[in-house]
Amino acid sequence: MSIDLEQFHETFFEESFEGLDIMESGLLELEQGEVDLENINTIFRSAHSIKGGSGTFGFMAVAEFTHDMETLLDQMRNGERQVTELVVETLLGSVDVLRNMLNAIRDGSDIDVDSVAEMTVSIKGILGEENTAPATATKAQVSGVAAKGWVVGFKPHIDIMKTGNDTVRLLRELNSLADTAEVTINNESLPPLSELAPEECHQSWRINLINGDVSEDDIREVFAWVDDECELTIESLAEEENYIGPERRDDDRRQKEPERRKTDRRINKPAESSSIRVNISKVDELINMVGELVITQSMLSRFGEAEDFNAATIERLKDGLAQLEGHTRELQESVMRIRMMPISFAFQRFPRLVHDLSSTFDKKIELIMTGESTELDKTVLEKIGDPLVHLVRNSLDHGIESPQVRIDSGKSEIGVIELSAFHQGGNIVIQIKDDGAGLNKEKILGKAKEKGLVTKEEGLTDEQIYDLIFRPGFSTADVVSDVSGRGVGMDVVRRNIRELGGAVEVKSTPGEGSVFTIRLPLTLAILDGQLVGIGNETYILPVISIIESLQVKTENINAVAGNAEVYRLRDEYIPIVRLYQIFGIEPVSTELDTGLLVVVEAEGKKIAIYVDDLLGQQQVVIKSLETNFKKIEGLSGATILGDGTVALIIDIAGLIELYQKDMAKVVPIKGGGIAA
Amino acid sequence: MSETAEEISHPDASKEFKELLTFFLAGEEYGVDILRVQEIKGWDSVTNIPNTPEYIRGVINIRGSIVPIIDMRLRFNLEKKDYDATTVVIVLSVVNEGKEDRTMGVVVDAVSDVYNVPIDDVKASPDFGTAVDTEFVTGLATIEEKMIIVLDIDHMLNAAELAVIDQIAE
Predict the structure, then answer these.
(1) What is the ipTM of this complex?
(2) Residue A626 with chain B: CB contacts under 8 Å
(3) pLDDT tier at B9, thresholds 50, 70, 90
(4) Is A390 among the catalytic positions?
(5) Best residue of B46, B54, B57, B61 to probe chain A, by most A CBs closer than 10 Å
(6) A436 and A563 share a domain?
(7) Under an 8 A CB cutoff, do B47 and A646 touch?
(8) Which of A237, A272, A579, A623 is most buried, taking the most CB atoms under 10 A from its CB?
(9) Looking at the complex, does the CB of residue B98 fall below 8 Å from at least one CB of chain A?
């Protein structure tokens, strides 16, 4: 019976990456000098699981590498080794190597053998190997009890295979411990073929491990998982030196290993994980909700059978329908919540990042993270990681000053970067705050002029100046470092965040630091929509971008340069966008005072959209236009209304761009531009 | 006896057959692989999509997904015709190498019939004579003295305006 192990690969990778994250955060804590046995144990357990899993799935390279790490951790656990900075750094490096290895195996690409070899050498160096063997040697050489070898008697119980264990794998792992392994198989109790059940194990083995520096514990560990399912004897070979096994099977085993390596790389999965782990309480909540729904439904179905239908029943029917509506909404929210994950998944990489970068830049940084349990949609979470990394790097590189400068300006030598997440309205807000020097207005302006981003410096507010850093091709770094300062950063950050339907802005106080604020929608799947009528069409505006809707007072309309119209709203002049023109729709009326203006904002720009009518608000499920068609400028998607028809959702930022392009063309407006 | 019956239903068992759904468009009969046809439905109102060519009539809701509808007459610059009782939308699944299959609807004058055509009988089309660009034609089949133009829907519906996704995304 063979089980297709590939179906478990995805789970293995997921768990291994989780394990690596745990190891990493544990190691970072160690680094801060807190030697906590529980912590070391946690790290050890993660390493052990990865080793066990990779051995089971035949990713021998990973298993061997992890084994060395594990040995080191074991010594730390037993108090045989001091926790020094060198050890922690090496282990952190090993975590990276391991992560790369697992990534390579998952993506079916080649493992970077050099980095693995290099890291193996440094681990072995710490372990005090006299002959720092090159990592290409597949044998794990472990210091410990020096014995010439061991005789291992392994007599599994008859049912061992039924519990999912594979004796061959155990033997293979044993083989990897020593230079030479001689195996004798005992077939005596094997029944005749006619009585043989394929799932029963009748054999027993006697293995001579020769010349490996193997301790008894190492051997016991191999069998740790089958401890209670076999009879295991381990004797030192010293007394039986003359014993020579009749069969030498390890040679052809070793030849098989390279083949196995090749098969390691076959799996080719997309990098984005396609499964999520859901807290059981969320599922229970969902089940409860469905129960409620069923009860309401059965209550309502009674009305269908009712003989007489009077005012009282109608009242009860109304109540029932109201209840149904409530339950449906709750159910919808619960289902959405399943996709929600805590932002700690995106935050957890930062302690490491800050740790690495502060040594690169010779800065002293303390990272404070708050609101890690704030939940947001998984899709958003996966895509927000990179922009966040960029912003944190940026704060570290450009924001925080060097220790000397800080002391000179009367600040603490240690810079603080605060990463926080919280809910605000229907949004998730993520803030990256540093107590550095703040943005340098003059420098930004100078650079912007040099790059031709602005022509005159008068009339720009502080916010507008700071906003320039998000423009393409802008970078003020004096020295282009590999971390930031290539000028491809901030505009990409803004673009990525915009793609998620969010916005990013920066506030800064000279000498006190800067705050980057990212606002993101809670979910990408549902949107509060304002339905508007234009001609015979219904469009949807995201409620979140609407500032206000108003009736037009003709005296407030001004024409600029002939065809562009602006509306004076209190102290502001807001461009009027005639949606029917941009979208080529037959309008009901072109007279502004017969319709309404909806003032909307995106990325700090406001426009007033002229619509014929406001039709009501509702939550809409966003459907992609790209699934079957393509992206359309000015639209973010479509939805299906209650009557089954499709309505298009307007992308405000895209619409503003479209409008600006339209204006730039300076084509005279058809249908008579209106001048007040 | 049974042998004869079999011979009648399968004139040549060694031949590979392809079932075609045929439809009319401006007097000519076109065929598409029936396995690609998801459903046939009457013309119903669509939601217009701004700033798209005229032949993209708009989008409709088919069981929760947004499906674009393409007018075949307009697509191939044929004479416009008002939609009437026989006008139908054929919903097709379109295969695009390396991407998810897409669902699209095409508006045609009327559906005609389903034929079982031996694959070998689909001859390469001459370089003239059909209203549809020969680029989108797999070949010509002759059935009961009639000529049927077999369309390459994947090529046709992934072409030009309909699949500019890649270009826009750069």
Answers:
(1) 0.81
(2) 165
(3) very low
(4) no
(5) B61
(6) no
(7) yes
(8) A579
(9) no
Its domain, for residue A616, covers 526-666
Where is the domain boundary, A499, A521, A543? A521
Question: Which amino acid, residue A133?
Answer: A
* The token pair that represents A362 in the structure block: 């010779």
Active site (annotated) includes residue A394:
yes
Query: What local confidence, expressed as pLDDT, does residue B162 receive?
Result: 58
pLDDT tens profile A77-106: 877 777 787 888 888 888 888 888 888 888
Q: Alpha-carbon distance B158 to B68, whole Å?
A: 12
Nearest to A351 by CA among A382, A311, A396, A412: A396
The last residue of one of the domains, among A521, A537, A571, is A521
Inter-helix orientation angle A9-31/A350-361, to 10°: 50
Secondary structure class of A419 (helix, strand, coil): strand
A317 within domain boundaries = yes
Name the CA radius of gyration of chain B, rounded. Answer: 18
Which chain A residues are closer than 8 Å to B163 by Cβ?
630
Give the number of domains in chain A: 5
DSSP one-letter code for A429:
E
* Same domain, residue pair A438 and A468: yes
Residue with tokens 């949606």: A579
pLDDT bucket at A351, cuts 50 / 70 / 90: confident
Which CATH number does the domain housing residue A177 bear? Answer: 3.30.70
A495 close contact with B: CB closer than 8 A: no
Q: Are residues A323 and A440 in the same domain?
A: no
Alpha-carbon gap, residue A42 to A267, rounded angstroms: 29
Q: Looking at chain B from residue 46 to 65, which residues have their Cβ under 8 Å from any Cβ of chain A?
A: 46-52, 58-61, 64-65
Q: Residue A621: give its domain's CATH number.
A: 2.40.50.180
B90 touches chain A (CB under 8 A): no
For A502-539, write each residue's pLDDT tens digit.
888 888 888 888 999 998 877 667 788 899 998 888 99
pLDDT value for A129: 52
Confidence at A213, pLDDT banded by 50, 70, 90: low
Task: Indicate whether A459 and A587 sit together in one domain.
Answer: no
Residue B88's pLDDT band (cuts 50, 70, 90): very high
